[in-house]
Hints:
Chain A is an all-alpha fold. Chain A has helices at residues 3-31, 36-48, 51-77, 85-102, 108-137, 141-161, 194-212, 214-224, 226-231, 237-264, 275-285, 290-314, 319-343. In chain A, 75% of the residues lie in helices and 0% in strands. Chain B contains 18 helices and 21 strands. Chains A and B meet through α8 and α9 of A and β2, α1, α12, α13 and β17 of B.
Amino acid sequence: MSTRARALGPAMATAAALLATLAVAAALLALGGHPPGDAFAALFRGAFGSWDRFVSFTLVRATPLLLTGLAVAFAFKARVWNIGAEGQLHAGALAAVAAAVAMPGAPALVLIPAALLAAAAAGALWASVPAAMKTGMGVGEVITTLLMNFVALFMAQFLVQGPLRESRGVFNQTDEIPAAAHLPDLLPGTRLHLGFLIGVLVAVALWLHLTRTPGGFRVRAVGASPRAAEVSGRFRVRPVVWLAFLASGAIAGLAGGVQVAGVTHRMYEGLSPGWGYTAIAVALLARLNPLAVVVTAVVFGALSAGGGAMQRDAGVPEVWVRGIEALVILAVLAVDRSWQALAGRGARG
Amino acid sequence: MNTHGSVPSAARLRDVSRRFGPVTALDGVSFDLVPGEIHGLLGENGAGKTTLARVLGGLLVPDGGRVEIGGRVVALRNARDARALGVAMVHQHFSLVPRFTGFENVALFDRGAWTGRGAAAPGYRDRVEARAGELGLEVELDVPVSELGVGARQRIEILKALMSETGVLLLDEPTAVLAPREVDGLFAVLKEVSGAGTAIVLVAHKLDEVLAAADRVTVLRRGRWVLTEEAASVSAGELAEAMVGGAVGGGVPGVGVGRGKRVGWAAQVADPLGGRGEGADEVADAGPPPVASLRNVGTTRDGRSALRDVTLDVRRGEVLGIAGVDGNGQRELARVLAGVRTPDRGRAILPEEVGWIPQDRSGEGLVNGFTISENVAFALHGRDACRKGPWLDWAGIADAAAELVREMDVRATSSAAPASVLSGGNQQKVVTGREFLRSGNLLVAESPTRGLDVKATVAVRSRIAALARDGDRTPGVVLISADLDEILELSDRIAVMARGRLVPVPRDAHNRRDIGELMLGARGADAP
């Protein structure tokens, strides 16, 4: 197989996965009595129908998926199966609100960095528990990161019902953060905020780190083969695993901070519709390549933005979008496997 | 090709082909197996011998050609199909459950061990013991397999394969892991089994062993059939030539890459390990200072002693050969010498950077999904010379990798090719070249030619031999190998590793028989 074919292979496989998903979704929609053409057209209009739909809906919804997707991709790259982006996002959102509310008079130049740093730190802290359990006791992180999600969700619930509840005492939500803590708009006249740019910058930084720096090389080596990293690379695996946990947690936490500072301006129950889980699909569809995560996050952002339009205009319930997201994950995994089989690696006589 | 028209065949392949992507592993090969024969299957790495065995064993479906078993054309889809037709395979890497006892492992894979309701069949234990007795297999049935040596595990594996009616027994490189005496034991068992009518295919790459054990020999080269001969009527030289298709540079492995030309202090050292106890300082003063020293080093792994009281010195320009049956602490010793494992007891003085060719090439020495450059970067990524500010200098690393590809004669389109497309021999050349880059003062080579073909073996061995004679820059080399020929060929001094202890071999005992006895712990290596 030539180098070129190798480079193109993943992109083609990804496209094939998306096409397969569309085909299956169309068949299911037809079975459910919805003309697939109408549904897809409504979905497309909702996501890309106008400049404003694209920027204010698709890209805004893509932003938390972009950051959590990057968090998952980076961890997976190091073979750290962080399923806990959802919990880390909640921890980050809470920390950002707490930090912003605590400094009501501070200027934006202080408040915004403080809130986002607090969010990243809280996400990293949340990830440090599974990290310590994995490196210290050998406890598998799939379970621990997942369970930490529930802890974060219930903690958020408790805080917005009690200690952090708004001073009016009407809804289960926090007070609004000071206006100085709101992320500035990226494009005037749209709802797109600085968070999307932050996401793109994190993507570029991660890509440079992974492909161009010694530290990133170590992360990839540990992800490809921890034993080879230890024996051939002669470096210790444990610090690399810690780095992957903490960086991943920080980026997921940042997603929460960006969401409250950029969109909701407060914390409430059900802030995230499961971005931390969808992030796994975003990362896998991008083959864990940070630059590709920008694209796949926008694809999933478009699904989310178009879902509402599909319900409104074509009468297709929005849960179908959830089904389509799940189909994408299945298709990516299936196509990936068959692609590897086609490439026929290994096995010499 | 010999035909046995009158004798019914046990198994037969006709024009069988099998491709893996762009690689043709088997190209129109025909092969006959007669009941009761031991049939040696020889060839270099990549010649197709394992592929052929796997086709017969039902593990690979051929792309073309015909498979006959017991005179009938069959379509084997998996190993279970083959087993049902009486074909059993013993793999290079055993398929035993480590925590189960030998008996449990045998029972696990044998339907006859169970009643229809899943209970143990009455009298099964007696049947197992009787079968082992018939075959002359000495097996430990009541000890967890994880506590058994490799030879003992292999005997369990063979018993497992032969519990039910077996017409064809396939053994993939069964001798690779065994000590010389265990090899003899294995062959005695195989004679017994074949005497009872079972046809045996013995995949191997050691000529002398195959000639000693086999009735007939088939040679494959690059996926094609080359010859099939009676073992009695063919010489090792003829077979070697058939395997490699022409004379090879240094002859077959085991024939002189260049030992014995070095003289000097190494030959005069009285205690081959550089002295334990009183005389240590004297011995050290007699030669140049050692580049690496271990003093009474011990390690514990999983609650057991892996290394016990190991003392050695390595000096520039010498090859210290460490022989031993696999699993006697060699891997632990390599890890200690490479600085990856800190000793639990004793003292280790080691150079800052150590070249280490690990035993497990594809699992530890390389990352298959990485390019050659990236694999070379394992040795270079920490060096200031390979950085530009915070960035890795990939262009510089690619140049170094391209240089290595030329230098080591790696057959690859470019240093940007992934390691997974290289053959085993070329992969090993990449690892060897990279570790040469790294080895300032000490190179640890762990079974550096295991699984390599004749040409690659000669190439790697002569590099190691040349390295140790490379003037001022030369490192000390520790060669750890279960291959006695390799040890005898390359080493200036020899020690044997047995049960975690390192036993010096006096110069007058540098021969297969004496070292073999030490390897099996028959002499000197014992005591708690």
